[in-house]
TrEMBL record:
Signal peptide: none annotated. One of its GO terms (cellular component) is membrane. GO terms for molecular function: ligand-gated monoatomic ion channel activity. This is IR11. It comes from Hycleus cichorii.
Amino acid sequence: GTLRDGSTEEFFRTSNYSTYIRMYANMKLSEPNVFEDSNADGVRRVRSTKNGLYAFLMESTSIEYEVEKNCDLRTPKRPIYPRSYGIAMPMNYPYRGLIDNAILELQENGTLTDLKLKWWRHNHKDCLEKQEGMELRIDQVGGVFLVLGVGFIVGLLFGIGEFLWNVWKISVDEHVPYFDAFKAEIKFAINVTITEKHVGNNNNQDEDESKSNEELENL
């Protein structure tokens, strides 16, 4: 719902965006009536409606103030239609430049921010204490640990698969039994003092060397 005959209702009523058109049509057809005579009535209705089945739309600045004052209220992170406030002046008003410069100076030196903190937050310490005292529960961060756990298991399986494939490749290239190649790779992996690994069959190497020596002697 929203304020009856207010600027927010006017925005939805005159919008050409299909989503806002449907929202306004639903508000007009809803029973009971979702429009309120004041923002305060809308806030009270939100807080009193069970199961969060009623939402009240109003200016973002007013909503921000109400959320800071009432700890049980929540608002979306992005406003539907962001807008700023201004000061209306007559045409050719002689003090317009002075007022503009004064507002810019208040923005630059942080006075406007301090005033907002004073009236928006410093007077509502109960909400701040509740927000600061809120701790993350395991169900709120469980998804992070689940992703990390799944990633660790997948990475471990890929690592084991790559290691076994590498052992098989060595056993084929070196013409040695798979188990011998596996033992050699395990020893090389766990012994940090070994800088070279020999996987080939020593007996075959000795036979090849003796044959080579005999051939040289015959020559």
